[in-house]
Write a structure and sequence with these properties.
about 100 residues, alpha/beta, 4 strands
Amino acid sequence: MAAKAIKILVACGTAIATATVVATKLKEVFKKLGIPLTVVQCKASEVSGKVMVFQPHVIVATTPVSEGAARGVPVVNGVPFLTGIGEQETIDKILEIVGIKK
């Protein structure tokens, strides 16, 4: 049975620097776990529109994202991917949200 592909929207202020770091780390983690992953990066201001089109399972943001913009999609703080502090706990939280048991 193939695992379902997980869709994560990564949001930061400009969709360039920190979103790229976070997206790269997420891809590495999911590859190690053997879980298919699609990541889309965007600016925080683009979250609402991207959620409607991409329909992610979770949003990982390095900057605040409003509940309204997230449209019911869970938002996880992506800063631990930049600092390394609490990174494993954040990964565990993402896996729990998408329904994957480690």
